[in-house]
Amino acid sequence: MTTNLNQLANAVRFLSIDAVQKANSGHPGMPMGMADVATVLFKEHLKFNPQNPSWINRDRFILSAGHGSMLLYSLLYLTGYKNFTLDELKNFRQMNSICAGHPEYKKNSGIETTTGPLGQGLGNAVGLAIGEEIYRKKFSSSVVDHKTYVIASDGDLMEGISHEAMSLAGHLKLKNLIVFFDNNKISIDGPTSLSVSDDYKKRFESYGWNFLEVDGHNYKQISSAIKKASNSKKPNIISCKTIIGFGSPNKSGKSSAHGSPLGDKEIALVKKKLKWPHASFEIPRDILKTWRVIGEKGSSLEKKWSSNLNKKNFKIKKRLELFQKNINLKNLDSLINTEKEKYFNEKPSKATRECSSMTIEVVTKLLPGIIGGSADLSGSNNTKTENSKIISSKDFNGNYIHYGIREHGMAAAMNGLALYGGLIPYGGTFLIFSDYCKPSIRLSALMGLKVIYIFSHDSIGLGEDGPTHQPVEQLAGLRAIPNLNVFRPADINETLECWQIALKSKNTPSAIALSRQKLPYINPSYSKENKSELGAYTVNTTAQNIAVTLIASGSEVELALQAQKELKEINIDSKVVSMPCQELFNQQSNSYKNEIIDKDVPAITIEASNVNSWEKYSKNNMGIETFGESAPFKEVYSHFNLTSAKIVELTKKIIKK
Q: What pLDDT digit, counting tens, does each position of 28-69 carry?
């Protein structure tokens, strides 16, 4: 018996329907509507290998419309990905199941990225497509030549990030990016006409995209459009006119099909209409076999690719393997120690944004996989160095991207670059604008990606630009994100160390907050040890028995050291602790934490920021509880009582108690 496309698509539909029904939770309508598009893509066009989900030359398939996650899980099960068994599908949305409510990235599983917050998958896909272009330029199109496919919903395209991401993709002419727009004209509240009247064709053509339209249930039209898009010189969007909840007599084309199980009675009616006389989760042997054969094709494709690589491009193969592993990371410690020793002798007084730039200059020479960029603030963030070569639509043989004023799109694209493999993305903006990046930063942390966020102008120290640009609550907000290391270095030494930690990190993204104003060199002695790796360490102590511990980060370490001198003049001994990374300090042993912050000694924390994240270390916290002011930075510090004199005053009060 010959299995036709309709039967294959129905297998996807009913696995999705059954899993949502069993969980009594989920979104059946989208998988039912897009099953035909996905079936044509997987059967006739997608290059993938379930036996090796991380094959570098596979096509990437991104489900940006993550609420339709059962579409993806059904496809991965049917094509033979080992993590996706029928039992896992039956445990959809249950504890410890890989079939979570929205797709969650797991390396080598078949899920390429974590989606759910709408628009994120589109942004990631732009980064993945840039990654493909970078690899293709470095290793030739005979080694790397694949597509990035995305399924996006109307919700993805409503989110502002879609504008940022798709505008950037058009500017870079990412021709191997193909987006399927599930144009079913239905949102949760009802028809999309309630809130949207965009002319999609004009919108995407203005970005420099190729725009195609098809009946999303017509297999020939779908396949023809994919072929046409594959030969385009521009990014491609295929508007697929689909029916949400396709096959449901009472719910198709309605918002009621979007986010709730169909119910047993309606499922029975769908089965009757679509001629699917099978029990829940039952896939006829011939249909499953056909799907598995589709999956098995990828194994022979990869073998052919590997054979060609071994025979004709063996030198390229070795370079590719070394590049993917960032093999030069083994030399990073030596490089950083050389730089630390040099600057110990020089003891420069520099803004940490300058210190970061000096670090970037040397590490990018060592690590060719580092891909930098900035949201139109290269000169202010100091992210672009003499070693930066611009990536453009005409030349991807570079290491720096002008993201434009697209903070959120930049952050999402950096996640995509990290997901591609072998690339270490960093990107810069002002700390105040980290709020524009926050959803993507959270997903970096959730996925455990090595992404490095450079946030300059880290405090009221930026001065005259005033409260709109002076971050107050941003550090506390970033520190609240699980699995994100937030660094605030105090000088060139700590900046080098924080970069060293960020580059060596395997499963944790980093945010490095940097000063605009110049800061003095703080360390009295040279050490090869990366003290910042401990999160906090003693910079200086004036006696064995101290009366107070002064704990600070970044630019406020200088204040603490000045206050220490003034305290010594009135016979009050103290210890100054620099805490460049709270997250790393919190991971240390209790004995080390007690050594640094002795509970029997009063402690004062000092940071030109909201004090929320410091209250776990001390009840005496000097910071800012309101928005900033527009004035020269020394005047602003004085206005907010962040001075050495005020530290001395508070110390005297605490000691008297």
A: 999 999 999 999 999 999 999 999 999 999 999 999 999 999
Q: Closest Cα partner for 642 from 472, 523, 492? A: 472
Which CATH number is 534-656's, of 3.40.50.300, 3.20.20.70, 3.40.50.970, 3.40.50.920? 3.40.50.920
**Residue 551 DSSP code:** E
Q: How confident is the model at residue 311 (pLDDT cuts 50, 70, 90)?
A: confident
Decide: helix, strand or coil at residue 393: coil
Cβ-based neighbours of 479, under 8 Å, separated by 6 or more: 486, 582, 583, 613
Q: Could you tell me the two tokens for 302?
A: 């990869």
Q: What's the farthest any 2 CA atoms get from each other in the chain?
A: 95
Would you list the DSSP string of 230-290?
Answer: HT-SS-EEEEEE--TTTT-TTTTTSGGGTSS---HHHHHHHHHHTT----TT---HHHHHH
Concatenate the DSSP letters of all residues of 443-489 into one string.
Answer: HHHHHT---EEEEES-SGGGGGG-TTTS-SSHHHHHHTSTT-EEE--
CA dihedral 593, 598, 599, 600 (to 10 degrees): 160
Please list the residues that pair with 401 across neighbouring strands. Answer: 373
- CATH 3.40.50.970 in the chain is located at 5-303, 328-519
**Whole-model pTM over 0.90:** yes
Q: How many CA atoms within 13 Å lie on the side-chain side of 167?
A: 15
Residue indicated by tokens 């919108």: 203
> Which residues are 487's β-sheet partners?
512
Separation of alpha carbons 227 and 153, rounded Å: 22
Burial category of 162 from C-beta neighbours within 10 Å (exposed 0-12, middle 13-18, buried 19 and up): buried
Compute how many other C-beta atoms are within 10 angstroms of the C-beta atom of residue 283. Answer: 20
Strands 537-541 and 350-351: unpaired
pLDDT of residue 657: 61
Given a cut of 60, whether residue 476 has pLDDT beyond it is: yes
The whole-angstrom separation of Cα 263 and Cα 318 is 55
Q: Is the pLDDT of residue 329 over 90?
A: yes
Residue 523 CB contacts under 8 Å (≥ 6 apart), including other chains:
344, 491, 493, 539
Query: In this predicted model, what pLDDT tens digit does every residue of 224-280 receive, in sequence order?
Result: 999 999 999 999 999 999 999 999 999 999 999 999 999 999 999 999 999 999 999
Residue 337 CB-density burial (10 A; 0-12 exposed, 13-18 middle, 19+ buried): middle
Domain 328-519, what architecture? 3-Layer(aba) Sandwich (3.40)
How is 491-517 classified by DSSP, letter by letter?
A: SHHHHHHHHHHHHH-SS--EEEE--SS
CATH 3.40.50.970 fits 5-303, yes or no: yes
Termini Cα distance of the chain: 89
* Contact in structure between 428 and 403 (CB atoms under 8 Å): no
- Asked if residue 1 has pLDDT above 70, the reply is no
DSSP state of 339: H
Which residues of the chain are in CATH 3.40.50.920 domains?
534-656
Q: Which positions are catalytic?
A: 407
Residue 26, amino acid:
G
Contacts of 372 (CB under 8 A, 6+ apart): 360, 364, 383, 384, 388, 399, 400, 401, 425, 426, 427, 428
Q: How far apart are CA 578 and CA 488, in angstroms?
A: 10
